[in-house]
Amino acid sequence: MLNELKQKALKEIQGAKDLKTLEELYRQFLGRKGELTAVLRSLKDLPEKERREKGKLANQIKLELENIFNQKKSEIRNLKSEVQDGWIDITAPGILPALGHFHPITKIRQQAEEIFQSMGFTVAEGPEAETEYYNFDALNTPPEHPARDMTDTFWLKNKKLLLRTHTSPVQIRYMESHNPPLRIIAPGRVFRHEATDASHDVQFYQIEGLMIDKDVSAAHFRGILQEFFKRFFGPEIKIRLRPSYFPFVEPGFEIDIKRGKGDWLELMGAGMVHPNVLKAVKYNPNLWQGFAFGMGLDRLAMIKYKIDDIRLFYSGDLRFLKQF
Ligand code: FA5
Hints:
- This is Phenylalanine--tRNA ligase alpha subunit.
- Keywords: Aminoacyl-tRNA synthetase, ATP-binding, Cytoplasm, Ligase, Magnesium, Metal-binding, Nucleotide-binding, Protein biosynthesis.
- Its cofactor is Mg(2+).
- It is found in: Cytoplasm.
- The protein folds into two domains: about 1-85; about 105-320, BirA Bifunctional Protein, domain 2 (2-Layer Sandwich), CATH 3.30.930.
- By secondary structure, it is an alpha+beta fold.
- Strand 6 and strand 7 form a beta hairpin.
- The protein has a seven-stranded mixed beta sheet. A two-stranded antiparallel ribbon has the order 2-3.
- The protein is built from twelve helices and nine strands.
- Helix 1 runs parallel beside helix 4 (about 50-75), helix 2 packs antiparallel against helix 4 (about 50-75) and helix 6 crosses helix 11.
């Protein structure tokens, strides 16, 4: 009888494919209420001789089975993954692979592009290393012009190129190769050799805007601007236009924005395209007119995400970047 029990146990243990089944088998044979345990318990009621013989055999079988159990257990464990055990704990929290994501400035750029594109603007681009002609001269800013000192320029070693100080040169490049009417935005990186503070960095992003048509007025500009801000920020945004000066526009404005109870922050320069700029690209200023603007993308992001120091965007600090 004991040998039959042993054969049965051995067969079933060998057939076990996962730890759970193995545990159940252990309980069935060797557990507190197990079949072999029951035999061992019943020994005390047997006459001494029989008890000794049967006891010896039962203990031997017990040891044998325990060894087999342990062997089988490590065998199954060596099958590596739980998937191979045929048992997956679907309630266990998974380990997510670390996913990258867009930089906050990229997100803001994409959102702004989408809004302008829906208003009929196409996206244009220009080089970051620019010539003096596109960055200054064609924008009505000849070498002796005092406005050249408005921004401190990084000149490249050969002195033939500079790092563009604004995205306005893209206006010229685009108008040179396209006929009016046109509507473009030109997002991109710009560089200025100046001291940094909470709202100024030596490299930052702008979005240039340009619309040229037969009768475009400052009222069109205001309308486009209001629509953009309403869609970008929602209704709680306030806009303030101040008269200002840029050589490539006349009249010129600066636009500040304020969100909720926050402070006013200068966001962009803008104005009606100067006739000299139109002449530089061989457009007839008596026929064509338009507006242009240059918006600080970082400043837009600062207001949207309530960031009080622009330098955080380029700090490479993952604790900061992971929030977006
Ligand atoms: C210009 O760069 C003009 N090209 C804008 C323009 C375009 C005027 C077309 C008229 C027509 P300004 O230097 O003010 O203008 O810069 C424009 C915006 O860039 C600022 O309003 C501000 O939002 C952002 N900006 C300027 N300097 C910095 C800086 N150091 N760090 C971060 N953002 C800056």
